[in-house]
Amino acid sequence: MTAGLEKAxxxxxxxxxSNACFIxxxxxxxxxxxxxxxxxxxxxxxxxxxxxxxxxxxxxxVIGSLKVTLLLYDSTRMRQLLSKSVVIDDDDDDEYPWxxxxxxxxxxxTLSLFLFLWFILGNYWVFSVYLxxxxxxxxxxxxxxxxxxxxFAVGVLIISHTVLFLxxxxxxxxxxxxxxxxxxxED
Length: 187
What we know:
75% helix
């Protein structure tokens, strides 16, 4: 990646991440993993047909909450660093004070990779028993799953699929338009 394109990417990411609307969006998004955690804890024993569904919600909620909390911390820290660099009028092109150190990068990467793999496992666990009995049958009392738990897990997966699709689509659009703009600047 050329230095000009890298600088433009850093400026774009820093403007987005330091935006107050982005921070409020992350705060609102924190509600999903917290609700996953509480639902998983509440219904931990209420899905014998697939006991990993409440565990999926519980672990995914805890790790997701940790990931969003770290993103919130990094975003507020970036806002502070950018406001200081504006006050100091630091216009050094070679340094980006908001760059993360390598440890934070690997923490975010590890959490993201774990959440992605957990998402794939959750899809398997939830949809492998698609539409289970919601009321325990008399002849097989272990062959049911609580309706609230199951519908919530399906809803979480639908929201996750939608967000993942939007992220991929927006990333492709940004990449396409940045390449188009970069190639027109070279001409």
